[in-house]
Amino acid sequence: MVQSVRTFFHRLYWLLTLGFALALGYAFWGRNYLTAWHQYLDLAAFIFIVGWVLVNAVLLYRHHFQYRDLQMEEVDQMDGEEFERFCVYLLRRNGFKHLQTTKASGDQGIDIIGRKKKKTVGFQCKRYEAQVGNKAVQEAYSGHTFYQCDEAAVITNSVFTDAAIALAEQLDVLLIDRPRLKRLMRRLPS
């Protein structure tokens, strides 16, 4: 259901973009040749151009400010997929480039791959209510090898067990727990 609604709006957006392109073509070149239709085509071109600009302004605002004034309590309520999207947004706001998500199932332990300072980092995202254990660290470590990343990291809204912290130190896996996540969230727009 959600995918079909998304597909509908995606197609509607591209129809609006096509109308925008035709309206621009008419405004710059077609007005000289379609003089009998000026009163109708001028209004239609205006509506398509203004509509396209407004829709893109809303999409741009939503893209850049969708997590504006987000609190940790709201992060705790996210599902796993939304938490991954939030982590991509958060990493982008904290200097990571070329961020991509891996497929949802069979991701080999890495959810997000990003570049920062010429290093590729593979991230495992865990939105948990309990403590995060060794398994997440092991998955991130093996996944970063599979995807040929320079470093591995685990991001969580929770905290790590002592065993997970010890394993991460031994395997050189970066751990981003609740307090570090809060510090990263300071770069979000407010």
Automatic annotation (TrEMBL):
InterPro entries: Restrct_endonuc-II-like, Restrct_endonuc_IV_Mrr, tRNA_endonuc-like_dom_sf, Type_IV_Methyl-Rstrct_Enzyme. Residues 76-185 form the Restriction endonuclease type IV Mrr domain. Signal peptide: none annotated. Keywords: Endonuclease, Hydrolase, Membrane, Nuclease, Transmembrane, Transmembrane helix. The chain crosses the membrane at residues 12-29, 41-61. One of its GO terms (molecular function) is endonuclease activity. The keyword Transmembrane applies. SUPFAM superfamilies: Restriction endonuclease-like. Pfam families: Mrr_cat. It comes from the Bacteria. PANTHER family: MRR RESTRICTION SYSTEM PROTEIN (PTHR30015), SLL1429 PROTEIN (PTHR30015:SF6). This is Restriction endonuclease. It comes from Lacticaseibacillus jixianensis.
